[in-house]
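the four lines:
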Amino acid sequence: MADYNIMELMICAASRLLEDRSTISVGTGAPCAAAMLAQKTHAPNLVIFFEAGGVAPILPLMPISVGDSRTFYRGVMASGMCDIMETCQRGLVDYCFLGGAQIDRYGNLNSTVIGSHEHPKVRFPGSGGANDFASYCWRTMVITPQDRRRFTDRIDFITSPGYLSGGDSRERSGLPAGSGPYRVITNMAIMDFEESSKRMRVISLHPGYRLEDVQANCGFELLQADRIEETPRPAPQQLQILRTRVDPDRYIIGRG
Amino acid sequence: MADYNIMELMICAASRLLEDRSTISVGTGAPCAAAMLAQKTHAPNLVIFFEAGGVAPILPLMPISVGDSRTFYRGVMASGMCDIMETCQRGLVDYCFLGGAQIDRYGNLNSTVIGSHEHPKVRFPGSGGANDFASYCWRTMVITPQDRRRFTDRIDFITSPGYLSGGDSRERSGLPAGSGPYRVITNMAIMDFEESSKRMRVISLHPGYRLEDVQANCGFELLQADRIEETPRPAPQQLQILRTRVDPDRYIIGRG
Amino acid sequence: MDVLERGSGEFFATHDPEEARQFFLQKDKSLVAKVMTVKEAVERFVQDSDYIAIGGFGANRVPVAICHEILRQGRKNLGFLGHTSTHDFQILCAGEAIDRCDIAYIIGLEARGLSPNARRYMESGRVRVTENSNYTLSMRIKAAAMGVPFLVSRNLMGSDTFAKSASAVVTCPFTGHRVVLHPAIYPDVAAIHVHEADVYGNCRLRGITVSDLDLARAAKRLIITAERLLPAEEIRRDPSLTAIPYYLVDAVCEVPYGSYPGCMPYEYFSDEPHLREWLEAEEDPERLRAFLERTIYSVSDFSEYIERQGGIARMMELRRMELLIGQEGCQDG
Amino acid sequence: MDVLERGSGEFFATHDPEEARQFFLQKDKSLVAKVMTVKEAVERFVQDSDYIAIGGFGANRVPVAICHEILRQGRKNLGFLGHTSTHDFQILCAGEAIDRCDIAYIIGLEARGLSPNARRYMESGRVRVTENSNYTLSMRIKAAAMGVPFLVSRNLMGSDTFAKSASAVVTCPFTGHRVVLHPAIYPDVAAIHVHEADVYGNCRLRGITVSDLDLARAAKRLIITAERLLPAEEIRRDPSLTAIPYYLVDAVCEVPYGSYPGCMPYEYFSDEPHLREWLEAEEDPERLRAFLERTIYSVSDFSEYIERQGGIARMMELRRMELLIGQEGCQDG
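prediction for all of em together
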């Protein structure tokens, strides 16, 4: 059996994608754990932004809120929402992490409603800063469980833009050129987006999963990379740091 | 003979126009002296703003620059240019004081060039914050010497808007409704602007001056109020405070 | 200005700078003491049907006392600016005080989960909504603070958040690119919790400012709750530290622990068990009624609420948690 | 977006957020020490033909050392952002370094009078100009800082300042009123003088901020001169006090008395006799040449300039003047 759970694998895989000296906007939960892990392993110079104003904190523990005191603990600046969002809009922030109740083949995300907007079956919190990050950051990453209802053929509401209707539609809409969804990390696989169609494409399978598993848990047809990698298992050093110095109380990895 | 000079009279007359509890943007020089004098006499609650960021200072001495340390000495806030200008734009600032190389019958002011803009005979500093204050503050006041070249029939360049071409042209241009030139104080008289035509109108003559003197020193035809007042002489208390507590070094009143 | 696309969202508050200028013209800008109780501040400055905005972010530096008092005084039909609003929104929904809402983030309490009652309330059809993103609402506030009818950005476009917003897409006359314009929001009233204020309303705050500097300037009426009053002379001693100047402020209420059960930077951490208690009580409407009766309706003021929540002893625990940030458990040096 | 009227002024710097995004994408944002001499900073970050902006206001908190060094290194054909620029503008005109200028306020030194040489230079026809107001330039910088192509306001309209600006009048799609749009300016390089910076470029400043917080964010390259270096740990001790974060900064130069002969709030007052000496020397081009030779061209660096101006003894006098503000002569209590 694996000596890690699937949440640990997702966090480690996400963490590995973050380059040293890059900049990132994160919220609470798994994305924050991935950023913290990266900072404590291969990316000590990763610069973390929180939308409410925290800049480059030395995170002591996982924040409960995107605006709590931990998000600017020993930071270089305690700023405000406009400054952070405008730093993203100017093009200084490389990565953001988002989630959502639904995602479609172009990486569009729904965190607003299931059903119609006028008479929703389920109301979710709404965009928060997600639309902003998805619009501005160069590379949007998504960590989400792989299931058919979530990976949907017809998204009920595009809260945050992915590649919209594919091709060059994102750039044509007026959103900044060269930005957009980059990787989707699920409990089964890692996907990117094919360059011209901008359709979601499997590029890596987690140990123990087959392409069929992923497709069976996806409501639309997935493209496949020419060569599909196996997602590296979490390194022992990653797991040790994740368990002892990132999430010792297992708030996040306890869910895996 | 008068026991005051003309600069003292102009400052005292301007000061008298400032109501207690009103708000004002000032620069350096005579306007600042008028505001300081008002604060020390009938308008202790006059709130003074400086465009570079000083808010409600307790002015120790006349500033040399609109941004020097005196402009926020014991102020309630040391802010920035956008905050000050936007406070004006939102409608919180009642008065501003401006000057210029030329003024026309509608109170338009020139502080940019004499001659053509492409090949100026004389280049002046330009708008600075004058266009902003003239656009935003409810009541623009002007202190300027009375002479034919300055009070011109044809202004070379409208740096800061008065009533533009008169009537409702100011409001039609897009500038905030209800704002505009309020009083022009010269060494001879005080003028306001007739309500419908927005043409400059003499409302008060300084002691010793006749209407003909004013008109002879003005390059356009002045309207006359139904009743023209005599400008009150500076009160002894005003003069004493002006000379001892506003401008003891006679930087401004020495020019009178 | 040719509009290429326009969101279908409603305007719930004034966006016209001319109307705001007329209001600000008559607002008293003189330096007078404005200290009053929370009860008096809400009586005088929050009216039924007002559009209200609450400062802070999530359950951090939020004027909770004002939200409680709005419930006690039974305000109804408020419009609400939902700019990552969590515990404050939860309280106002519990009081059924809102009937229209600019949404960026509502009903959630971030990592703590969703508010069952706020969700029911928002799904009931009793609240008209316009969608926004957090930054869109920040800009709509900032536009009002600047005294202009709109600001421009490059978000929202292409999304359904735009389709249900009050924003409009136009072509930039300088670059030829598509950009999106967001109309100003001048809230009728805003409440902001700060660390320190003098009796006139000059305020200092520490930590992240979120959108509060703009909100203070955008709001027609502004209620400040402060952890502590400060001598006015201290404000003038160092004007660089002033975040909100007095002439924007209508009421100054000294409310120690005023962000409780939320976090107040450098003062006290959030009371997570009490916030969980809220979420649990909300699961059942009957239980919620009893819970609200006990924690808000039968309470005379915020000090009594603090007493019922464990008083100074509990506050000292939360204070220690806040000041031990960085010293707890494992961490880097 | 239908343009009703458009100013005839030129664009002297990039206003396109897309171009700026490509630049900022490749800019190094990592936490590395950037301490260097003024000479090195100007060599590396100020090029001929760059569009340059100088922080501060009038002769207050201005990076004078950078202006001197630009003359010594003989930079030419600079574009300039003239946002109440006084002594800095005077220096750059003396070096004939500018060939295009966004004007809000130039050639004057406020209450001190006009600069004869800057005036001659601007009347010579050698400088292309676009008119602005101070707030228009503040907004053009802020638009760049926000990453948008323009901002909107209600000034300029109806004036010749508008006619010679780069701005455009449009109809507001929300209110139907006429408003004016101001295109962004992304300066190639900006220099800002601050009270304190750490080696990475995190900056603190006191007193009025003018437009410097936006300018730091708008500029593609940013040179900081600081009265003092500060331990990096002190920045992290209180992040609320940081005005400019390190990732905007390319060079950190420790320059004590760096705003001399201008004023530096809480540090030293302006040297009025020396500023008068400048104005007098400028009356005659020959005299100005000798004056510049003595005060700038023959001087190796800013410390030597300070020495020639009376060194520490003179600086201590100016410091006393600054710290005696409010205690001099007659005043209210």
